[in-house]
Amino acid sequence: MEQTIQDGKLVELTYTITDDKSGQVLTSVEFPLGYVHGHNEILAPAVHAELEGKSVGDVIEVPIDCNQLYPPRDESMVITDLIENVPEEYREVGTTVIMENDKGQTKNFIVTRIDEKTLTIDGNNPLCGRQVTFNLDIVTVRDATEEEKEEGGPALPEIEVDGATKVSV
Questions:
Q1: The pTM is what?
Q2: CATH code for the part of the protein at 9-67+128-151
């Protein structure tokens, strides 16, 4: 009997997110992403709603208005500095830079532009202000174990390090 996505099912899927205006693929997840349906909402609520009742092999498209998910773009979250002031490890477009304010709160910024003299980071969510389409391919649907329900997703394998210590990977 074919299992369908519903609460308590472990679901694994691959997906792409495409900008509706430009047609550009913004994100592509080729290694299956796993979660327990109804226990861990890892994608937009509209995506979870569309997954309900689907089964392995189904491919669905879900349009999302990201204005409903994220606050409006804030240009004060875009910072440009001289490249000489930026450590080497951050000098690549797409690199995440974790910034901390004087209260100890952290925020992720992404390097969005580099030229000969400057580097720009952006603290806005890359999807804010966009109309996108999630294209999802369902690869696994099965009953989740109790451990997976507690964790919200697939149990991570353990490996031995230095012959003794076990670490989840």
A1: 0.71
A2: 3.10.50.40
